[in-house]
Amino acid sequence: MRAFRRSIDVTPGLGRSFVAMGDGLTAAISISRAAVGPPSFFRQVGAILWKDLAVELRTKDILSSMLVFGLIVLVIFNFAFELRGENLILVAPGVLWVAFVFAGILGLGRSMAQEKERSSMEGLLLCPVDRGAIFVAKMLGNLIFIVILEAITLPIFAAFFNLPVLTPGVGLIVVLGTLGFASVGTLFAAIAINTRAREVMLPILLFPIIVPVIIASVKATAFVLDGKPWAEIWPWVNLLIAFDVIFLAVCFVTFEYVIGE
Amino acid sequence: MIGAQGFKGKSIQASLLAKSFGSIHALREVNLEVGAGEKVAIFGPNGSGKTTLIKVMATIMRPSSGRLHIAGMNPGENGHDVRRLIGVVSHNTYLYDDLAVEENLAFYGRMYGVENVKARITNGLRRVGLERRSRDRVRTLSRGMQQRLSIARATLHEPPILLLDEPDTGLDEAGQAQLWEMLTSGYADEPTVVMTTHNLKLGMSLCSRWTVLVDGEIVSEVAKENSSSESFQALYRRYAGAGT
Ligand SMILES: Nc1ncnc2c1ncn2[C@@H]1O[C@H](COP(=O)(O)OP(=O)(O)OP(=O)(O)O)[C@@H](O)[C@H]1O
Ligand SMILES: [Mg+2]
To answer: Most CB atoms closer than 10 Å: which of A70, A175, B76, B145?
Structure first.
């Protein structure tokens, strides 16, 4: 049975006529093209982000694997080094960022792999959506997952190493560092997914590029923990902000060329 | 209806379309014109370039050379307008295993900006016989059910052009018999269809033009009214046997 009939006029600039027919009831609706036009950039970003969060809420694939990995790193370093005083401030920020970056890479890979399972990335590319919107959505998803990981790891780190990391200063640096990491990471996860041996390709491609962000993050974190004045910390934070802006812009623009084909 | 303005009744115009992957020439100089509402079947042996051709026409793969117009528009310039006109069913379902059946459709509905999404989802699920599974996760559906859902996904925005790459994958006999019904029963005007399949009988019964693609080239094109299915099958075997 024909549940409804429709005739469409797809000529650009003209309206679409829409005839719906159900159970003897006929309604004719005429909608201007603007009203049925493409959903906005941000609505599409929202749709993809919602989808990623909904999947994660159910499977917890990404968060659970990242958390286990991050915690193991902290535990190993905690027992491997007898860290005290001077020593501690020098090494601990590095430990923290190693945990974030290595755990984060698991999440980046997994989030992109999900789009490969049923070739759903092709499904996304079929949609009338800016490729940049796909990038922003995947990047935001990764950012959220990694920040959640960090929010859980930081208190544990504070307890293990007895350091005051639960401060706004450290929080700011963590978020800035993670933003740069997530933007480059999202781009390279999309590149790596199309290569052979994709699991090993992602870290190999990503680490060299991300080194400046990690160094700036580690330095800034160390300075904050060391109680240095903000005048000394700002240059590193500014560097982080600069890297974030550059990486975001470059990755946003180039994403289109690395997906598909 | 298609054909109102800007293009002369052709839904798809491909000329000298080519696509290579390194040294592999998946498509060479494919010329294909499909009028509005026309149904074209593409047959060909494994690796002959059917999927590549569908992907190029669906704008998810860029051709290496050649010209492609969809409804008179160049996908490179009017990507969004072109994509809104196209629905693709392939052997990949493009579904998310961990979302429910209706959530998958709702997601794609949002991506296409479909209005009346709820009603359209209910309708689509009824069409493909999945209305009772709407809350179940896709992971829990059988392969054929997932293919049915994929059909509902592809037709949710009622695209006037359907590109079908082995749409019968995983469908049972009843499903194959209803394939056309599932795909097109919501339409007032017949959609344009290009489909590939290894099921010669199915493709011949659904489409009015039969083409054979071998080694990335269309080697034969036959109108239904000018040929019998037996003679076309014989012709296909000659080409397909030689092509692999
Ligand atoms: N991403 C790719 N990279 C390299 N080569 C590819 C790629 N996709 C397709 N090919 C090659 O292009 C040719 C055509 O492949 P295609 O998938 O289009 O064939 P097909 O006709 O759909 O085959 P089948 O009947 O098996 O589905 C093959 O030789 C294949 O190896
Ligand atoms: Mg194929």
So the answer is: A70
Total residues found in chain B within this entry: 244
- What tens-digit pLDDT sequence spans chain B (244 residues)? 433 444 457 999 999 999 999 999 999 999 999 999 999 999 999 999 999 999 999 999 999 999 999 999 999 889 999 999 999 999 999 999 999 999 999 999 999 999 999 999 999 999 999 999 999 999 999 999 999 999 999 999 999 999 999 999 999 999 999 999 999 988 888 999 999 999 999 999 999 999 999 999 999 999 998 889 899 999 999 988 754 4
> In the block, which residue shows the tokens 């590549």?
B52
Q: Measure the CA–CA gap between B151 and B87, rounded to whole angstroms.
A: 9
Confidence (pTM)? 0.88
Please judge whether B158 and A12 are an interchain contact, meaning their C-beta atoms are less than 8 angstroms apart.
no
Rounded Cα–Cα distance for residues A52 and A175 (Å): 20
The candidate with the shortest Cα–Cα distance to A224, out of A174, A160, A161, A155, is A174
> What single-letter amino acid sits at A25?
L
Q: Residue A172's closest CA among A108, A216, A107, A226?
A: A216
Ligand 1 lined by B244 (C-beta under 6 Å): no
Distances (CA, A) of B51 to A20, A48, A207, B242: 34, 26, 36, 20
Pairing label, strands B161-165, B192-196: parallel
3-state secondary structure of A167: coil
Sign of the alpha-carbon dihedral angle for A219, A222, A224, A228? negative
Residue A75, token pair as written in the block:
């535990």
**Alpha-carbon distances of B75 from A66, A215, A255, B79, B165, rounded to whole Å:** 40, 43, 18, 5, 20
Chain A partners of B84 at a C-beta cutoff of 8 Å?
10, 38, 128
Indicate which ligand has the atom closest to the C-alpha of B52: 1
- Measured distance CA(A12)–CA(A8) in Å, rounded: 12
Taking only the tens place, the pLDDT of each residue in A10-51 is 333 333 333 333 332 233 333 333 335 668 999 999 999 999
CA gap A83, A77 in Å, rounded: 9
B139: nearest CA partner in chain A: A118
Please list every residue in chain A whose beta carbon sits closer than 8 Å to the beta carbon of residue B61: 260-261
CB proximity under 8 Å: A 12-41 to B: 12, 14, 19, 31, 35-39
Task: Give me the helix-helix angle, A168-192 and A131-161, nearest 10°.
Answer: 130
Q: Which amino acid is at A54?
A: A
Q: Taking CB atoms and an 8 Å cutoff, what residues of chain B touch A127? A: 83, 108, 111-112
